Each structure stands twice: as structure tokens, then as C-alpha cells.
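All the exercises in this workshop are built on plain-text protein records. Sequence and backbone structure share a record, each on its own labelled line. The question running through the whole workshop is how a given chain folds. The record below serves as our worked example for the rest of this section.
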Amino acid sequence: MPRIATLLLLLLASAAAVSAGGCLDASTRKKVSENGILALIAPPSPAEAARMMADPFDADKRYKGVTWISNAPWGGADVYMRVYREMVANENEDAGVRAVAARALAFHGTPEDALLLVPLLKHDDMRVRQTTTRALQRLHNPAVIPNLVPLVDDAHELDHDVRQAAASALGQYADPRVLAALIGALNDDDLAVSRTARESLRTLTGTDAGDEPKRWQDWAAATTAPFSGQSKYLYPNFHRGQYFWEYIPFVPGPPNEASSTPVGFRPPGT
């Protein structure tokens, strides 16, 4: 990890500035509840998380460090953004670390970061492809359309989660290439993919021509302004009900998110 390790002092200095409480805040602990009950009881301090994030020898520590820091409200600080971007771009980095760094860019990145993520769409590891495609739901940049369009082709039969995520991400782009690709995705054998493609078509057009591609093709051929009814795109967000133990006082609830538009996206009519 040639360049990331050199950022350790900067990371520690930045972490010290936010470590007054000695641990991450409650909202952060909710978001990383997947790491287990011990993580909830004794989360690392910002300085400890920064050390983990920059550990040049242990990919598991880097993964956990990025997870803790990127979920914190201050996880979008410049020094951390530099590390996320370095990890995403580093072809020698562990696949899991690149995936969580891609997710960190989804949380804190800019439209330009969407282009940095594009090479990961062809990564050998399915986790990386899935996480990257979902990240592109949150970063708006029309330059990625040519990279997303092929992903809804059901020739990617092993990547049905990727196809579904791409069908959703395309719902923010009022572009003829996107319209054609989503109409084609209605034929997908995976019901989740075809339903997502239909939802994206409704978002883009304000029309619902059903599940049959032929009806959508006929509609598109008959209209000169297919996107005139476009509505605001909201990226998919995590939401679930409470588990029974989450009703216990002081136990964090589910890490639910509020719906929002991608960074850089201008809703229709604005």
C-alpha cells in the first residue's frame, strides 16, 4: 500500500480532531451494526479506526477502518477521501477493501468520482461489481451511461444483482440509449431486474406501458418527447423494521436511511 501508508499521520491528525468523545456516535454505530454486538459495545476511537484504515499489512483491518470512518458524519473529510480514491484506483488492493472504498465514495463522493468507479464494473469479484453499481445510483454523471447500459443485458446471467442495480441507476438518465436498454431489460428472466427496469421507465417517462417490451417500443416510436413526464429519481435506500431486541432501551435501531437524489442530479423542472 505504497501511498496510503504515507497518509497515516494525516489520518491520525484528522481523527484526533473529531475524537473528543473517544468513540463514534450513535448513528455510526447503527450503520455498522452488521459488525456484531461487540462492535456496538466497544467501537474503535477515530484514531484507532484511522490506524486500521491505513494498515499496510492487514486487509481486514483496512476494510473495518474504512467501514467505521466512511459511516461517520465526518467520513467525507478530504484526507479520508484521498484514501478512498487511492484504494478504489489501486489494482493491487484487496477486493473487499476496494468494494468498501467504492461504497465510501457513494456516501461522500462527487460526480467526478463516478468515473473513478467505472473500471470496477469489470472487476473479477462479484462483490466489487455489485457495490460499484449500487454506488453509481448515488453519483450522477451522464458520462457513465455507456458503462451502465451493457450491464442490464441478461447475458450477465451470473450478475442478476448487478443487472438490477444498473437498471435502477439508469433511472436517473433521460437518454435514448437508456430508454432502449431498459425496454430490453423487461425481457430479463429475473423478475427483480424486469420490475426494476419497468420502475425506471416509469420514472423517466411518467408513463406505464406494462411489462411487454413491444408496448413500450410502440409507445416510444409514437412520441417525440419520451422524457417530458420524467419524475425525480431517488436512489434505493436501506430500510427494514425493528428486530425484537431493538426495542430494548439503548440498543440501536435499524440503520435505515432517508431517500435522496444522487449527488449532481438536477430534478426535472429545476
